[in-house]
Give the backbone structure.
Amino acid sequence: MKTVLFLFGGQSNEHEVSIVSASNVYENFPRDDYDVLPVYIDKSGIWYSTLDKINEIPKKLDEVKSFFTEKAVFNFQNGVSSIEIKDQKINIDILYPLIHGTTGEDGVIQGFAKACNLPVVGPSMETALITFDKDITKSLVKHNGVKVAPGIVWYKGENYPDYNELIKNYGEKLFIKPARSGSSVGVSCVKNEKELIPALDIAGGEDNKVLIEGAIVGREIEVAVFVKKNGEKYISKVIGEILPPENNFYTYEEKYADDSKTGLVISPDLTDQEKSIIYETVNRTIQGLNIIGSARIDMFLPDDGIPVLNEVNTIPGCTSISMYPKLFIASDMSFKELVKIMIDNAC
């Protein structure tokens, strides 16, 4: 039986979310088909595991730290990957990184796996690298007929852009977001001039490349996909809709807080024509970005009925309240089946 190295935690600003996602995936791991070795990466980048057989991964950071106490050392010799924990050496066949954000979704861990001849679960290295940068994503999908929000790129250290020029070109409501970050971390909605520079500084604190976009008024739509290396697609048969609190957007806190006021609607009220154009946008996005592996494709649906791509998330949240697993479950695929398909098709 093949052994899967299951990495979670990591050094990004989505560390805690990764732990909750990992707990949910670990609970649904196809243990009849694969052995699994969970390894926790702390915020400084040190790897930890446990010699005890565990039935679950705790969801809270402090509990994880008390569970995973043995340092784990990765080795790659003579074409074989292994993990050493104390005096034990465990050979690894597949890498499953459930690390959100930087080092997990940006192609870094996928490139590491490729260098070690390890098939990797989730997005391919190329898919992760391209989609993590929202600016590159927008540029590529535009060439394949997908509409994107109007806007510009600002680089940290440059002169601040003129507010009046921005609202003249993009409207009076602006969204400021890091080009390379996830889960709405560092994102601000700017409604007046005094909010612009603080918003740019916040986004610039996450990434030196910042997007300034005009707000898109429309329904927030999400579709879950998984694409095999041969191009065969699993696309959720149902569509999801996000209903953020009134006068707010889908913030990091709203995505993961226990008391979130955001609604997640599975199979919302949409016309056949709206569903058709949403799925056409999904397929054009997959093709334009050459997506291989997992992805959640997020878009807005304005009143004119033409979807506007928001972003592509290649290691989407897998918590019990996350849209990605919910959409596949509503499409008559159990979460355990989904996890098995993803591992079976590691690339």
In short: The mean pLDDT is 94. The CA atoms of residues 242 and 264 lie 5 Å apart. The chain has three domains: 3-121, 130-147+218-344, 151-214. Residues 3-121 form a domain with the Rossmann fold fold (CATH 3.40.50.20).
